[in-house]
Design brief:
Layout lengths: L1 H12 L16 E6 L2 E6 L10 E7 L17 H8 L5 E6 L10 E3 L6 E3 L12 H16 L2 E11 L1 H12 L6 E5 L16 E7 L8 H12 L4 E6 L7 H4 L4 H8 L6
Parallel strand pairs: 3-4, 3-7, 7-8, 8-9, 9-10
Antiparallel strand pairs: 1-2, 2-4, 5-6
Amino acid sequence: MKWQMWMAVIAMLWTTSAISEDSEEWKMDFKAGQHQGLLYRAYYPDTPPPENGFPLIVFLHGAGERGDDNERQLIHPGHWLWQYVQQQPAVVILPQAPEEDYWAVVNAHRDSWPYAFDYPYTGDNNLAPTASLAKVMTLLQHLDAELPIDSRRRYLLGLSMGGMGTLELLGRKPDYFAAAIAICGGANPAITKQYSAELALRLYHGLDDKVVLAQYSIDLHKALLQQGKHAELTLLPDTGHNSWSHVFSSDEPLNWLLSQRRPRQ
């Protein structure tokens, strides 16, 4: 049934074939969608799904890409993801948070430099998610019900504000994602107690980042290692806050991400 629905979706939405790497026509392959007020762009492979379904890649953008145009969230990762899934088919979802909201529950102190952030959500204090993250969680339920998604191959990425959202969502849905990449993000280290022992996690951060200090990723990584959980930390010199450019410069992070699988139930 899901396969038939999938082919119906493709018949309605797929409009492109060969697209130049230098052209922005690739954006047309990310179809605009909305679910319960959450704007998102979605890439759907144009091939029948594998027996177990397609991998799912979810990307959470940074604060600068918030809005209501349903396009800004493509700025940094869009072409990188698009090029990759031409060879490795996957469903890709890029939601957009409104200008006034965050992905994570965070108190931002921008009256000092470097900026400072407090992360009140610890994973066991029942603090409600932001409206935007709650809608992402609802969207994930909807996608699983409607599309042929491989339940062992769901992946999460985010940068800056989206890195914070990534780290929080991993605590709120600990048995959902096989692997995640958080770039220049942060979270309360206590949240790591909620993370699945099977989760594969990579953290990237610029050593000289003054917008979101690298110490947030360092503390989180330390907490994970103390619990015997799998995590890799890459500290990058001379990137400032823009450590995502390093990550998006090659396919290696995506190769690693999509090689991870949750254990069979």
